[in-house]
């Protein structure tokens, strides 16, 4: 993992520089679109796509599927960027580890759309999935800002997910923990100015500390069994520690899994031992949610 993280300092330089700009939103492509599924997935299962509100909803059913197991995936992107090709590696490995059919929701993004539109779209897809005939277990997963949205969904849903998987989640939209200033020197990709600009555009007048939008302000007692994966070279690390500690204090079953040298969404480096161990644990969670986190 250390070598991969070192390589990230080179590979993620454009991201790092863009997120370091106060005018980050001005750099976004107004025609940005979600990456389509790679051909390899069609060889390894069934891929379908529908459209809701002009945005794609992808579904991947692996050839070796666990009957009745569904997973809703919310991709990250700082609340402003769509699904990228690297997400498909994560999606494929989640399906492989769990045997679940994976539904990928490309939710409305800021600055063109606000949080209310995002939540409405995500809730509708989740309720539709929960109502499918034959669904016996339902998981929700998200990386980065997708994790932000996933936490709120899990707490709002009429049918609570059986488990929640958070991959390097963004758990405090305010980004005001002093630890971020110290940890940023180790983070090869994330920078506060661009992230905060995206968050402000997304929350609008509701503000960064709205308890319906910011996981750091949400009551967590009804959280389902939750696994949080976080790398030590990620400015979100300390907020993840605080989130899991607060969940435990409120009586929710949550477990934090860390990779000391891991960068933001380190599980995307699927060839590393840390990422392989993470996906193995997600597989265990899908079979025994409460037993895996306690």
Automatic annotation (TrEMBL):
It comes from the Bacteria. It holds the Pfam family Abhydrolase_3. The keyword Hydrolase applies. The keyword Hydrolase applies. Residues 71-267 form the Alpha/beta hydrolase fold-3 domain. GO terms for molecular function: hydrolase activity. InterPro entries: AB_hydrolase_3, AB_hydrolase_fold, GDXG_lipolytic_enzyme. Keywords: Hydrolase. This is Alpha/beta hydrolase. It comes from Microbacterium testaceum (Aureobacterium testaceum).
